[in-house]
């Protein structure tokens, strides 16, 4: 069955186009049919190649609007060079992403997916959660009677720390050594590429659980596989990987103590609705010559 690209036409003549991973090739092959009408592109998930050929063909394009915070899949300097602006949807995804982090921690700690019957956990009696990247999302990951440690580029205010009972560690190594659960919540940047690798897994507790809700490339996945094989850590729970989705024969999918989700952290009805509203607001600003409230610059 032929897939469709969704076009939104407003009374003003503005046309928005939504691209999904599954429809991208279809769109590229037929873009000449409606290229002159498209003024804003909505990008949802997957990796869309905004190369020079595509950008040249969409000569009325004003904005590329990304659903979600991460824009590492977009070549922003290239897009900007065509006079096209880029925006994302920050803040909107914070609660849903924090929820998935705590859900993964609970599922792994209580071995819900493993279904081993009797499972014992330190989770309720003084377990320690170490958060790497305590920004908006990481700050929301505060619950239960747990000790909260965090490592950040910038230390939060004393009032923020008191509000959630968090203790700052300037040394990520020391945080890793002390934590029963390690949750990574950083943004992907060149500096964060493979932030967690063999050296980091080597200093973690052998009964610790590694949780990643940031981006797959923040972790050296080969090092993670090795850490699990050698029982350097107890378990892993991941909402993000590279690539997404993982091949069916990937080693991470073979471990009974590893939970892998297909990057669904922001997939709630409420969050999706707010995201779309925010995307429309940014697109309308771009095509009417206004300032994009969530513009991302190179």
TrEMBL record:
Keywords of the record: Oxidoreductase
GO molecular function term, any single one: glyoxylate reductase (NADPH) activity
One GO CC term, this protein: cytosol
InterPro entries: D-isomer_2-hydroxyacid_DH, D-isomer_2_OHA_DH_cat_dom, D-isomer_DH_NAD-bd, NAD(P)-bd_dom_sf
SUPFAM superfamilies cross-referenced by the UniProt entry: Formate/glycerate dehydrogenase catalytic domain-like, NAD(P)-binding Rossmann-fold domains
Database matches in Pfam families: 2-Hacid_dh, 2-Hacid_dh_C
Domain D-isomer specific 2-hydroxyacid dehydrogenase catalytic: 35-296
Entry annotated with the keyword Oxidoreductase: yes
Top-level lineage group: Eukaryota
Signal peptide: none
Occurrences of domain D-isomer specific 2-hydroxyacid dehydrogenase NAD-binding (ranges): 124-265
Entry similarity comment: Belongs to the D-isomer specific 2-hydroxyacid dehydrogenase family.
Name this polypeptide is given: Glyoxylate reductase/hydroxypyruvate reductase
């Amino acid at each position: 069955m032929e897939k469709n690209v969704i076009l939104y036409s407003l009374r003003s003549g503005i046309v928005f186009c939504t691209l999904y991973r599954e429809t991208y090739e279809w769109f590229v092959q037929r873009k000449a049919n409606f290229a002159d009408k498209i003024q804003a592109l909505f990008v949802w998930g997957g990796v869309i190649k905004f190369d020079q050929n595509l950008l040249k063909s969409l000569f009325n394009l004003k904005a590329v609007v990304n659903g979600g915070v991460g824009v590492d899949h977009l070549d922003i300097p290239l897009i900007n060079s065509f006079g096209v602006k880029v925006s994302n949807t920050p803040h909107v995804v914070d609660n849903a992403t924090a929820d998935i982090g705590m859900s993964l921690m609970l599922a792994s700690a209580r071995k819900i997916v493993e279904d081993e019957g009797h499972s014992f956990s330190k989770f309720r009696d003084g377990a320690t959660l170490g958060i790497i990247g305590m920004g908006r999302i990481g700050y929301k990951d505060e619950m239960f009677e747990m000790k909260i440690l965090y490592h950040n580029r910038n230390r939060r205010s004393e009032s923020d720390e008191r509000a959630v009972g968090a203790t700052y560690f300037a040394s990520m190594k020391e945080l890793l050594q002390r934590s029963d659960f390690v949750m990574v919540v950083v943004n992907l940047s060149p500096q964060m590429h493979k932030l967690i690798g063999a050296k980091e897994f080597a200093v973690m507790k052998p009964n610790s659980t590694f949780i990643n809700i940031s981006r797959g490339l923040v972790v050296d996945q080969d090092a993670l596989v090795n850490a699990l094989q050698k029982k350097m850590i107890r378990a892993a729970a991941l909402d993000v990987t590279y690539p997404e989705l993982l091949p069916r024969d990937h080693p991470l999918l073979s471990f009974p103590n590893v939970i892998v989700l297909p990057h669904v952290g922001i997939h709630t009805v409420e969050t999706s609705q707010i995201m779309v509203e925010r995307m429309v607001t940014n697109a309308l600003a771009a095509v009417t010559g206004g300032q994009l409230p969530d513009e991302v610059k190179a």
